[in-house]
Amino acid sequence: MWENRCKVAVSGVGISKISRSSETPLASLALDAVKAAVEDSGLKMSDIDGLATYAELPASGHAIVDGISIVTVNCMMAMLKLPNLNWHIQTETVSIGGAVQQAVNALTAGVCKYAVVWRAMHNPPGQYQNLPGAYASGAAQFRAPYGLGGPAQGQATSQNRYLEMFGQKREKMATLAVTQRKHANMTPQAFFYKTPLSTEEYLNARMIAYPLCLFDCDIPVQGACAIVLTTADRARDLKPKPAYIAGYGQRMVYEREGSLAGEVNYMEAGSSSSNLTWARSGFGPRDVDVAQVYDGFSHRAIMSLESYGFCKEGEAMDFIQDGRIDLDGELPLNTFGGSLSAGRLHGLWHIIEGALQATGRAGERQVRNVNVSFVGASVTNFTTFIFVPDPY
Amino acid sequence: MTISDWSKVKRPIPVPGDLSKPFWDAAKNGVLVMQHCQSCGHWQHPPYPTCTNCVSTDLKFEPVQGKGSIYSYSLMFHAGDQRFAAAVPYACIIVEMDQAKGALIAGNLLGVPYTAVKLGRRVEVTFEKLNDDITLPQFKLAE
Questions:
Q1: A269 is a domain residue
Q2: Based on the structure, what is the number of domains in chain A?
Q3: CA end-to-end span of chain A, whole Å?
Q4: What is the residue range of B57's domain?
Q5: Between A145, A164, A260, which is nearest B136 by CB?
Q6: How far off is chain B from A147, nearest CA to CA, in Å?
Q7: Which residue from A minimizes the CA distance to B9?
Q8: A145: chain B residues, CB-CB within 8 Å
Q9: Is A150 part of any domain?
Q10: What is the pLDDT of residues B10-37, one digit of tens each?
Q11: Could you tell me the sign of the dihedral formed by the alpha carbons of A184, A186, A187, A191, in that order?
Q12: pLDDT by residue (tens digit) across A257-281?
């Protein structure tokens, strides 16, 4: 087991206003989220001495403008003017889960005491779409000319093969969308908090990129969220019950860039991360009381459940049936609604919910007797975490 | 069931790079080429600086016979790229060529409604001129 397990905890969370409108500049929302997380922890802003983020705008063709379409570490530093800043990082390949993991490393190394990690997501005005250019270079030259450029098409190509290989019907995915919407209906900040979803509506929904219908795609939003992390000893002096990090992992097995094979190696890729988290924490899938798994498209939750070992390859579409992923089921899943129903904050909201569930702070949607709270915060990078209420 | 009307679609124009120039040069002449590793015999597409099987840099672009099977597909009902709106609903297919197993190439399935797309269906390559510089490899159902 990892000798540094439970040495770092999440000690504060914050979520900004979540909407479809980009009227409020992103920097302002990111600042709101950071302030909320710091207030939640009981710290003063001047106590914060570490900053980390992942600043990608996941929509092509839009101008990258710091403070408007992304919020970089540089932007946050300029806004906060922290008097005691000692450490910062802006990650790239390891995305937001990786930024959190780097903060864990920095705190464990003792180079900072109280770190804030945020994710700020811009929803470009007008109908959400990627705006590829008139020319397609790099990997896009083999896709975009055929109208295969977008992420939904990419997901569709791997999901169609999956359905065929395992003899499955896409209609079964209604259960995931509907259950997660039920969870969002108990999450006040969720975009679809007041909007229920029925199986009927899912089955009659318009197709986007077959087999993905509208409700298989996450809801892009304008908003931000943030967490405060600190060392275990310091966490015990702060307001909220600490959510100790018992272990984490990242993807070690890769596809080459531009491959058209889709996520054909997802089992290898996901398990290469979760195996680290299981080994480091000493827990296994059967110990998990509640799980958040990245669901940018609904099929990503399927790939997550299988590759992390919650069920066997090809079985997740059946695994999610019969109430198993409800709050009182065997494996409550995406208990805040996920990216599908709460809003796309790209994995950091999954981390926030994982920490809240671990510490009895999930309000109406709190799962009972949580000892092990699992998070898979990404699918491209398969970053994984375990949060526990009590160190061991 | 109608066949997609591609005539009003403004396709993004591929920009050949160092690695991909031989591919586009051959396509302009109506030939499909893919990288063939001279060390281990592995075929790959899209082109890559090293062999994805054995890491050798001894890769040559060689012609690939036109027939293959549909490995995967996506049926677009939504114009994520507005320039493709006139063709919706349309099919994108990913094809594994018989002669180059392991290499995958994307295209549209031309000349038939999108409902013709099935995993494993036999297709063959055809070529569609985009402009004076670029000709796109495309697919039609195999005879």
A1: yes
A2: 1
A3: 11
A4: 21-141
A5: A145
A6: 7
A7: A147
A8: 11-14, 130, 136
A9: no
A10: 999 999 999 999 999 999 999 999 999 9
A11: positive
A12: 888 988 889 999 999 999 999 999 9
